[in-house]
Amino acid sequence: MPSLKNDRAIVAERVFKAPRELVFKVWTDPQHISKWWGPNGFTTTSQIMDVRPGGVWIFTMHGPDGVDYPNRIVYSEIVPPEKIVYTHDSGVDDAPGQFQVTLLFTDEGKNKTKLSIEMLFRSAAERDEVVEKYGAIEGLNQTLSRFEELLSTM
Predict the structure, then answer these.
(1) DSSP string, the chain
(2) Res 6: pLDDT
(3) Strands of 9-16's sheet, edge to edge?
(4) In this structure, what are the phi and psi dihedrals at residue 141, rounded to the nearest 5 degrees?
(5) What is the pLDDT of residue 97?
(6) Dist. CA 6–CA 132, nearest whole Å
(7) pLDDT at 3
(8) So where are the chain's domains?
(9) Domain 3-152 has CATH 2.160.20.10
(10) In the chain, which residues have pLDDT < 50?
(11) How many whole angstroms from its chain centre is CA 149?
């Protein structure tokens, strides 16, 4: 279950019953990501997804209430199938709510992979706003559950 860490971060860990290479692929392949990215009731449309250092993923999350949420991810580090580091924002430079994400994919043996996530915000106030206004903790939990559900079918 995601939780708050220090005054600027949200962290989560979850173990998936799938090999690390598959977990990494489903996290980075636009063919798969549209099937699970976002909380329950959301859909995601990718305009571009270039998973490499310096690459960008531009996408829109469509809420169940009809509201569209523009998003941009800029990748800074990709180490297949071990690590991804990126900055996530709304697509507007220096917009509030920007945060850095570090994903670690750890082989737990016997077709199990531990995914560790740290979302680090620029300030406690920005982290708190995302938690309170957008339900970031529950949204992350639902997103990881959708990811796990898709992995279980592969």
Answers:
(1) --EEETTTEEEEEEEESS-HHHHHHHHH-HHHHTTT-SSTT-EEEEEEE--STT-EEEEEEE-TTS-EEEEEEEEEEEETTTEEEEEEESSSTT-TT-EEEEEEEEEEETTEEEEEEEEEESSHHHHHHHHHHH-HHHHHHHHHHHHHHHHHT-
(2) 76
(3) 3-5, 9-16, 112-121, 99-109, 83-89, 68-79, 56-62, 43-49
(4) -60, -45
(5) 79
(6) 16
(7) 57
(8) 3-152
(9) no
(10) none
(11) 15
Q: Computed over its alpha carbons, how large is the radius of gyration of the chain?
A: 15
Contact 139, 7 (CB under 8 A): no
Sorted by sequence, the CB contacts under 8 Å of residue 108 that are 6+ apart come out as 15, 114
Specify the amino acid at residue 2: P
Token digits of residue 104: 């670690």
What pLDDT shows up at residue 57? 98
> The tokens of 97 are what?
């709510």
